[in-house]
Amino acid sequence: MKKKTKYNVAVVGVGAVGIEMLRVLKQKNFPLGELRVFARSARSIEVDADKYPVEQISPQGFEGINIALFAGTEGERGASVTFAKEAVKRGAVVIDNGADFRMDKRVPLVVPEVNASDIRKHKGIIANPNCSTIQMVVALWPIYKKAGIKRAVVTTLQASSGAGRSAVEQLKEETTVISGRDFISINVDLENRAMPQQLSFNVFPQIGGFAEDDYTSEEWKLVRETHKIMHDDKIKISATTVRVPVRTGHSESVYIETARPISVERVKHILSKAPGIILLDDPQKNLYPMPKDVEGRDETFIGRIRRDPFVKNGLWLWVVADNLRKGAATNAIQIAEVLIK
Length: 341
Hints:
The protein has helices spanning 16-27, 79-89, 112-115, 131-147, 165-174, 217-230, 264-273, 291-294, 325-340; strands spanning 7-12, 32-39, 43-47, 50-56, 67-70, 93-96, 125-127, 149-158, 175-176, 185-186, 236-243, 250-258, 277-279, 300-307, 314-321. It is of the alpha/beta class.
């Protein structure tokens, strides 16, 4: 991509991630020339009091666009399947938040804090990883570089917004607060349920469809995407992904076994100096990351770092990030920032 002072950008999709992309572009003062917003139908939207005209998506709409940010659709084939190559044909570099190109060997899968150099290998399309993968590899990479990682076992606690706006609405509709001392009533008879189970006052261990060995598609993403991003398919990774009644912010309990000994104090020091990470780890003062505190933030927060008293080189981490920001929109725009440099 030729160096310019401003770049014409397209945002494809106006769901939760698309809206966040518009917000992050403005907040990060991305050097925008023309901004076009595409969706299935034309309309006008408002984001933080700014109005954006939305055009009906078409191949011709990508004429003159330098960077096309596809908001992506998890669980089904996204718009990038139809329009990404059309955008590339017209000179744009596509950064796709959907799952359609992530495991394509010709497409880099990038988290800038980990493998920014892979961006150079792109042939017109760069893939944004799954939200839960992004925050995990941001946490693991600094440790991996110093001590290696043989094994990782992760349980994710994923917010409703990870399944889109309809899941957030389900959580809201299921929960009705009654005034006074009465407890909260739950409306579970929703006609248009987005989730396979009740979400309010409940957790359930299914994100995505069940696949090989009865692991869900989301669990396999954590395995395969981490291997690709970190360029190491020998790390033994096992995952359980759980949906929880949180609006925004994914939490992960991550257990690792390092290849070489490393102290908890050394891990804390390394993580405190690593890009994109905020260490919040003072359990005696009840300080540790929580999703309610990281909403709207771009960093990955880490705490509860402790050794396994029974397994040599075993360590626990607690990792929290805003899944719409670092887990999607912010990571995509960070890729664009590296691209234009």
